[in-house]
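quick one: benzoic acid bound model?
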Amino acid sequence: MSSNQVWQSDHYDRKLGFVSELGKDVVRLLNPVKDEHILDLGCGTGDLAYEINQAGAHVTGMDFSKEMIGEARRKYPQIPFFVGDGEYFTVDSKYDAVFSNAALHWMKKPRAVIAGVWNHLKPGGRFVAEFGGKGNVETIVQAIGEVLREDFDTDADKLNPWYFPSIAEYSALLEQQGFRVAYAAHFDRPTQIQDHEQGLHHWLNGFAGHFFIALTQAQRQAACEKIAVKARNELFRDGSWYADYKRLRVMAIKPG
Ligand code: BEZ
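yep, here:
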């Protein structure tokens, strides 16, 4: 997981709350059962760990961001949360399931993540995850790339923090680890961002900080405005911005 991203848990909850809302579907695929032990990998501020907890499972949340974990603990004191890196984590427990929503695309070492998940699952355990798949937010990425090249002589590819694999690539990695891929889907999910005209700015502020790391605040503001102009035709309709999400959703089983 990348360390350059500054996570603001209040902005995440107030302006980007769709992440947890849409993740409820992934919890349905997980289908947590009472008394199961489940790890939520990249739990953010804990809303989906809470959903899993409500099903009677013993859920533990892990996130790379201390900020996010602090907020998760404040919101859900009954759930254990800890700071950990999905690419290098070791805990003593073995889980019935590892769950992850909208987190794995921040981890650019997928083999290490998959090995970690494998090592922490009991035989017969399941890995249920959704994250950005190939082509995810490509209109936004393209607009960022153009603006950074045109105005700042910067190669955005070198700053890109995200991993968006194809269904074939990710299924192959899971199988190479020994998983049986029971389910995999790659689908479009244009995602409405709240606050009308301001929506894309919220998204860029919340998620795309890596690209603007060398810019002043004023340059960053100007860059975001130009990105919005470039992306508007594709992503703005009926008074709202829609991020061009393409999700990869998987369920993989560790043989018993
Ligand atoms: C996503 O959920 O697809 C996503 C979120 C933040 C940055 C990039 C992608």
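Residues 102, 105, 132, 136-137, 162, 207, 245 surround benzoic acid (CB under 6 Å).
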